[in-house]
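We were asked to recover a plausible sequence for a given structure. The inputs and outputs are reproduced exactly as logged, with field labels preserved.

PROBLEM: sequence recovery
POSITIONS: 111
GIVEN STRUCTURE:
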């Protein structure tokens, strides 16, 4: 079987001119810290509920427009969700129910 390694995916910037990298320090949002911690837990439990390879695969499978629109941790949470569904840890229905529950909490709060 022959594979073509000459084409690149949209996320693959290796060896290309990409301009200067900005090394600005920034504060992480609370939810970003939670996503980071969640990945550590999910990949270090025994048994592991997902792998870092699954995280990478999920991120790299995003269509170019979604990849460009999503932030770093939005890509992570998308990929984590996909991996947990694939691994049978949670279902789409369970996730939908929880999202509706959380959303209803915010709709009832007075601003």
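RECOVERED SEQUENCE:
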């Amino acid at each position: 079987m022959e594979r073509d390694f000459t084409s690149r995916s949209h996320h693959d910037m290796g060896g290309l001119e990409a301009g200067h990298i900005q090394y600005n320090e920034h504060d992480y949002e609370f939810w970003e810290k939670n996503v980071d911690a969640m990945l550590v837990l999910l990949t270090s439990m025994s048994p592991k509920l997902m792998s870092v390879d699954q995280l990478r695969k999920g991120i790299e499978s995003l269509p170019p427009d979604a990849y460009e629109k999503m932030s770093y941790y939005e890509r992570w949470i998308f990929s984590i969700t996909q991996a947990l569904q694939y691994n049978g840890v949670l279902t789409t229905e369970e996730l939908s129910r929880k999202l509706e529950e959380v959303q209803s909490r915010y709709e009832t709060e007075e601003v």
